[in-house]
Amino acid sequence: MVPILTRLILLFVLLFPFTANARTFKAEGSDLLIGVGAEQMALGGAAAATTDDIYSIFWNPAGLSELKESQFSISKQINSSLSPINFLALSLVSDRLNFFGLKTTLSFAWISRLHASATGAFKEDELESIFLRYALPGIPGNFDGEIESKTKDYRLSWALTPIHHPKWSFAFSVSRIECGTAFCGVTANDPGNVIISSSNATAFSFHFGAKYYYNDALTFGLNVEDIDTKLDVDITTTDKTGTTKTTYVVPLPRDIAIGVMWQTSPEIKLSLDYQWLSGSYGEYEILFKVLRGGFSYKSDWLTYRAGLIAPLALESNKIENLKDKLPFPLVPTVGVGWVGDHFKLDFVLYLHPLMSHNRNKPYPTMDISVIYRF
Q: Which of 235, 229, 264 is CA-nearest to residue 248?
């Protein structure tokens, strides 16, 4: 019997001349500057100090301490084609969880960090190829074939705040990260050698969040993600020389955000975050800097929101500044939210920067988030 990998290679060789011309690229997930949660996304992600619902588990888990009731939530990108949902979470609030005068909140979330798919020929100086190498170390710069990758995050958070004088709150989170990538194609270095490879990477990651409520108008927030996180990577590769297996460790860069929220009136809130991500990732030394700003106005029935995301630097020691290849220097966001007795519904509309570049025109994208309080 012909081994299954050999049959796959033969099938790919037969189909390759016909499929190589069909070039596609798609990318979805929270790791694309946008994040998750329509309310926080509509504020441009300026949420380290403002977040106070179940989506705090992503933006700053200390905000979970402000929950008055248990919550269940689901979120989806309306025009997604890869992931049916991008966030699913449950937060529990109960007097039984409190101790020593501290209110505690437990939360669990499933987060789609990245789902990317590419088909066709890409060159190393194209944004799509640069992005794939940022997200997936080891991917060749010049390739012709198919790539499919999914990164999922299973996250557990524990938030605490004093019951009687809640001037501060802090939280700890632990994530189980799972990443799977498959590649089938050829590279520019050896165009006659068809390669089929699959990789699986896993890690436990730790996060920390804190908020300080200076007064009724001013709140400060801090969120630190992927503290000393290392991915254990296993790769199986089959080509004309045979099958090889390799294992190695990839550190993840640390992600830090500091923010401030100013409530100028009962109806109006302003927020500003500064985020930087730095450290090693595979063979790269990465430095990302992002400025985020948000505005919200609450009426009797609805809350209106707007925001801006401004990448200041997207750099590494191996690849030119990714910021210079983005289709526009600022990412605008707008949204609206409604709160009922038990349900909270939020929408956000934004221009997806990566997909806008890929399609050579603005790519409007909408997310919807639903929270059920009980």
A: 235
Q: What is the pLDDT of residue 22?
A: 74
pLDDT tens-digit readout, 337-372: 999 999 999 999 999 999 999 998 999 999 999 999
Domain assignment of residue 17, yes or no: no
Residues 6+ positions from 97 with CB-CB distance below 8 Å:
103, 104, 105, 106
Q: What is the CATH number of the domain that holds 270?
A: 2.40.160.60
What is the longest distance spanned by two Cα atoms in the chain?
74
- The answer as to whether 158 is a domain residue is yes
Predicted confidence band at 47 (pLDDT cuts at 50, 70, 90)? very high
Residues paired with residue 345 on neighbouring β-strands, in sequence order: 338, 370
Q: Could you report the per-residue pLDDT of 188-209, keeping only the tens digit for each?
A: 878 888 999 999 999 999 999 9
Gap between the Cα atoms of 53 and 163, Å rounded: 18
Q: How far is CA 115 from CA 24, 80, 112, 326, in A?
A: 14, 10, 7, 19
Instruction: Band the pLDDT of 186: cuts 50, 70, 90.
Output: very high
In a domain, 8, yes or no: no
Residues 6+ apart with CB under 8 A from 367: 36, 38, 41, 75, 76, 77, 78, 86, 347, 348, 350
* Residue 309 in domain: yes
Number of domains within the chain: 1
Q: Is 164 helix (H, G, I), strand (E, B) or coil?
A: coil
Question: Does the reported pTM lie above 0.85?
Answer: yes
Q: Please answer whether residues 184 and 133 qualify as being in contact, where contact means their C-beta atoms are separated by less than 8 angstroms.
A: no
Which phi and psi (to 5°) does residue 245 adopt? -125, 135
Amino acid at 180: G
CA–CA separation, 151 and 202 (whole Å): 9
Give the residue numbers spanning the domain of 292: 23-373
